[in-house]
Specification:
By secondary structure, this protein is an alpha/beta fold. The chain contains eight helices and ten strands. The radius of gyration is 18 Å and the shape is globular.
């Protein structure tokens, strides 16, 4: 269980401080999917970085299974918008990077993960030889190689075309169901939030506050986009964002 309580994130000091997150409380249970949606620049990424242990909250607390989160932890994986691949390393080396950097990680090779993501045949290529969709999948492979309990995603599909985006959303859904990690997805895409979030926390303009939490219990199947429940959830999210 990851528990966020009354979290405030500010940058700078005293009178010059800029508040990005303003008293957000939320939780995500093991195996649960939570989407965070809000306007661009509202503070979503700042909240996610705090949940990753990369940013220390100015006020409030973040805990994992009752233990205070004060630094990055191996069971929490973070996928960034640009995948963060090292251009001088191959797909295989990028996917194995987390394992090579620390003996404390489970001894899992990237072979099965790359095959699962449809990247086995390109494992010896470099990032410059990959499509944008493939690069995002390599970023996912690297995160999965550490067998995380919590997967944090910061707008991982931004700038992709619609069909590629939907294919990778389908992949995220299958991985979430198969590996049973808790998923926290930051997005400004209403349909993406509706497709991947069992719950969707709607955040305000900066500084981010929780406006509403929309329950989305019908999600979880690949054909969910074609259902009335999906359309209703998307409509509720749009209305909450506009309020």
């Amino acid at each position: 269980m990851m528990d966020v309580r009354d979290v405030v994130v500010e940058y700078g000091r005293r009178a010059a401080a800029v508040r990005a997150v303003d008293g957000v409380s939320l939780s995500v249970a093991p195996g649960e999917s939570l989407a965070l949606i809000g306007p661009s620049g509202c503070g979503k990424s700042s909240l996610l970085f705090a949940m990753a242990g990369l940013v220390r909250p100015t006020e409030g607390t973040i805990s994992v299974n009752g233990e205070a989160l004060t630094r990055p932890r191996r069971e929490i994986a973070l996928i960034l918008q640009n995948a963060g691949l090292l251009p001088w390393k191959t797909v295989w080396q990028n996917a194995n990077l987390s394992l090579l950097l620390g003996k404390e990680y489970p001894r899992v090779t990237a072979r099965a993960v790359l095959d699962e993501l449809g990247l086995g045949e390109v494992r010896n290529r470099y990032p410059s030889e990959l499509s944008e969709g493939m690069k995002r999948r390599v970023g996912v492979a690297r995160a999965l190689s550490t067998s995380p309990n919590v997967m944090l995603m910061d707008e991982p599909l931004a700038s992709l075309d619609t069909l590629t985006k939907e294919r990778i959303q389908d992949l995220f859904l299958r991985l979430w169901k198969r590996h049973a990690f808790a998923l926290v997805l930051v997005t400004h895409d209403i349909e993406e939030a509706a497709f991947l979030g069992q719950r969707v926390a709607v955040l305000s303009d900066r500084p981010a506050k929780t406006k509403e939490v929309v329950e989305n219990p019908a999600m979880g199947e690949l054909n969910y986009r074609d259902t009335a429940a999906f359309a209703e959830t998307a409509q509720r999210l749009r209305a909450a964002l506009e309020r």
